[in-house]
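Lay summary. Proteins are chains of building blocks that fold into shapes, and those shapes determine what they do. In this project we predict the shape from the chain. Here is one chain we studied, written as its sequence of building blocks.
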Amino acid sequence: MTGKKKLFTWITITLREGAWAPLAVFGFYLFGLVIDLYDRFPFMDIPTHFMGGVTITYFYRAAIRNLKLFFGELPLLVQILFAFTCTGTTIIIWEFYENAFDYLFGTTMVRGLEDTITDMFVGLMGALVFSLYYRRR
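And here is the predicted shape, written in a compact code that computers can read:
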């Protein structure tokens, strides 16, 4: 199999297996923005960020597991640690997005430094819980 075909196969399999989870949470997030859920019920921000951490980690685990097309089977601990660190990076980028959106468009997604730190912590806790309990290879 050529390199391009392997890459296409990896992307296709990964999207099919893992993209539905973070897309579902993102859809819920967008729906919440439309109906002002987070302004009416600010506590809903916490479970959304927790589930974001869970589902992003799920997606990265699928992507990393499917890298066997290129590198063979990776040890489970490597898969877990790499997915967790990728999720942490994604969480930081998401918080940058929230801050930039507030700055550029005058929204109120960020309610201060404590909110940002809490969101990142809760997202990482979702990633950690998922990493500890999910064992599929």
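What the prediction tells us: The longest helix spans residues 76-105.
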